[in-house]
Amino acid sequence: MSQGQDWNAPGAMPAYQQPPAVPAYAQGAMAPAGYMGPGLMDAPVPPGMYLDPASGLILPNGTALASQGLRIGAYFLGGLLSFISLILAGLPYLIWGAISWSKGQTPTQQMLKTRYWNPGTRTTATWGTMALGQIVGRIVDWIALGGIVSFFMMLASSDRRTLYDHICGCVVLHDPNNVLDPARYPPAM
User: Fold this and answer.
1) Distance between CA atoms of 165 and 160, rounded to whole angstroms?
2) Is residue 107 part of a domain?
3) Which of 103, 110, 156, 183 places its Cα 20 to 30 Å from the Cα of 126?
4) Per-residue burial over 25-61, b = 16 or more CB atoms within 10 Å of its CB, e = otherwise
5) Where does the pLDDT of residue 185 fall: very low under 50, low under 70, confident under 90, or very high at 90 and above?
6) Which pTM does this prediction carry?
7) Is residue 137 included in any domain, yes or no?
């Protein structure tokens, strides 16, 4: 018998085998803003927030990540509202959209009590962020196979983001009590 290391012992690894890669944020570096990475799940969560274990997102109390069913329903409701607005020359829907963007919502999200949330800044999406996601993001989304890519991205990701959600850097939260309404809680100056 040799006097070398017992490679059958638990945790033993042959010298030629590389250890598994560990993300930088699990080694003590910062996790992406708004996310809790592996090894950081025990870190303190700011007051008024909670850690969503399924997505790893830090979310405001009183909200939840919008479900896949809610997101799919919003897609079809948005299509119906767009069709109705075309009959009315589109102007009422455009005005409603421009006003609701200032609250981090689309008209459809306003009806379904959902809202865009930026996990990096921990704020409701601004009008400019909404314009980026809803104009530029939707154009890119339709170029990418007519929205099919976004649909599968939303179904497959733990944070349920579509392509245009990634472009504007936001997630969609269900906010039934309007705890994220900027008019209710204006941002601190």
Assistant:
1) 9
2) yes
3) 156
4) beeeeebeebbbbeebeeeeeeeeeebbeebbbbbbe
5) low
6) 0.73
7) yes
Is pLDDT larger for residue 107 or for residue 35? 107
- How far apart CA 99 and CA 105 sit, in angstroms, is 9
Is the residue at 27 inside a domain? no
| Phi, psi (rounded to 5 degrees) for 85 | -70, -30
pLDDT for the residue 32 = 55
Range of the domain at 119: 64-174
Domain count, the chain: 1
Spatial distance between the Cα atoms of 142 and 119, rounded to a whole number of angstroms: 25
Domain assignment of residue 81, yes or no: yes
Q: pLDDT digit string (tens) for 24-56?
A: 444 444 555 555 555 455 568 889 999 999 899
φ, ψ dihedrals at 188, nearest 5°: -70, 140
Residue (of 174, 168, 159) closest to 61 by Cα position:
174
Burial of 163 (0-12, 13-18, 19+ CB in 10 A): buried
* Per-residue DSSP letter, 24: G
End-to-end, the C-alpha distance of the chain in Å comes to 73
The residues with which 52 forms a beta bridge, in sequence order, are 57
